[in-house]
């Protein structure tokens, strides 16, 4: 009889701006071995890295840089190692964020600007559907019309992507509408991200996390 396949090891990056305990519990329920840490080597060597985020874009970026998180994310992606960003942990992957007229540089893994939601009711807090892209691995097995939990006041409204060579394919982008459409999820090689909180999204969120872990 062959030995059981060891569980994939996921690090939840602890840089001071995320619901790390909720993420830890949800990822563990989805079948991974989970550790909360900001240790550079452990984060680099994990099978998967989850980058949470709650609060202001500028504060999250400052905390990420203080924890050397930008180096961890960039070097993992350069080596094709999976990263999942959640909520503001997704927003900081874009080129910039603008809050109260102040612009802050993001990690620029994707072009685009995070700005205020264009809606009468802000923050966007509660359950909403996501228009998942065709061929999505992130949303595999999730019924159409399923709802996910959002808590945010800022989002990316204009998706900008330009292939730098012919072999490149465009990322898969999921959209949600609150007042106007905004980016709710992205799948781009080893880099996946969600504006909503899968760890707070019940069975649908658990399926997404299981799908991600299955790619590690």
What does this structure look like?
There is one protein chain. The protein has 216 residues and is an alpha/beta fold. It has a single domain (9-213), classed as Rossmann fold (3-Layer(aba) Sandwich). Helices cover 24% and strands 32% of the residues. A 7-stranded mixed β-sheet has the order 2-1-3-4-13-12-11, sandwiched between helices. The protein has a 4-stranded mixed β-sheet with strand order 6-5-7-10, covered by helices on one side. Strands 8-9 form a two-stranded antiparallel sheet. A hairpin with a 2-residue loop joins strand 5 (94-99) and strand 6 (102-105). The radius of gyration is 16 Å and the shape is globular. GO terms for molecular function: glutaminase activity; imidazoleglycerol-phosphate synthase activity; lyase activity. One of its GO terms (biological process) is L-histidine biosynthetic process. Residues 11-211 form the Glutamine amidotransferase domain. InterPro entries: Class_I_gatase-like, GATASE, Imidazole-glycPsynth_HisH. Pathway: Amino-acid biosynthesis; L-histidine biosynthesis; L-histidine from 5-phospho-alpha-D-ribose 1-diphosphate: step 5/9.
Please state the second-level CATH architecture: 3-Layer(aba) Sandwich
Helix amount, in percent?
10-25%
Query: What spatial form do the alpha-carbon principal axes imply?
Result: globular
Terminal Cα span: 24 Å
Radius of gyration, Cα only, in angstroms? Answer: 16 Å
Q: What is the name of the CATH class?
A: Alpha Beta
Helix/strand structural class: alpha/beta
Q: Structurally, how many domains make up the residues?
A: 1
Number of strands: 13
Low-confidence stretches: none
EC number: 4.3.2.10, 3.5.1.2
Subcellular location: Cytoplasm
GO molecular function, one term: lyase activity
GO biological process, one term: L-histidine biosynthetic process
């Amino acid at each position: 009889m062959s030995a059981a396949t060891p569980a994939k090891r996921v690090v939840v990056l602890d840089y001071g701006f995320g619901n790390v305990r909720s993420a830890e519990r949800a990822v563990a329920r989805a079948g991974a071995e989970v550790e909360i840490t900001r240790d550079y080597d452990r984060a680099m060597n994990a099978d998967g890295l989850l980058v949470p985020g709650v609060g202001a874009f500028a504060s999250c970026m400052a905390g990420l840089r203080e924890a050397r998180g930008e180096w961890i994310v960039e070097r993992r992606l350069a080596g094709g190692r999976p990263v999942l960003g959640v909520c503001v942990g997704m927003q900081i992957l874009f080129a910039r964020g603008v809050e109260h007229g102040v612009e802050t540089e993001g990690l620029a893994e994707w072009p685009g600007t995070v700005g205020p939601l264009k809606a009468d009711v802000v923050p966007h807090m509660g359950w909403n559907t996501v228009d998942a892209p065709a061929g999505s691995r992130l949303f595999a097995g999730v019924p159409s019309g399923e709802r996910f939990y959002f808590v945010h006041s800022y989002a990316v409204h204009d998706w900008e992507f330009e292939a730098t060579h012919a072999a490149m394919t465009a990322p898969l982008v999921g959209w949600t509408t609150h007042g106007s459409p905004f980016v709710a999820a992205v799948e781009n090689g080893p880099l996946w991200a969600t504006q909503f909180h899968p760890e707070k999204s019940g069975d649908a969120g658990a399926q997404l996390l299981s799908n991600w872990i299955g790619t590690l």
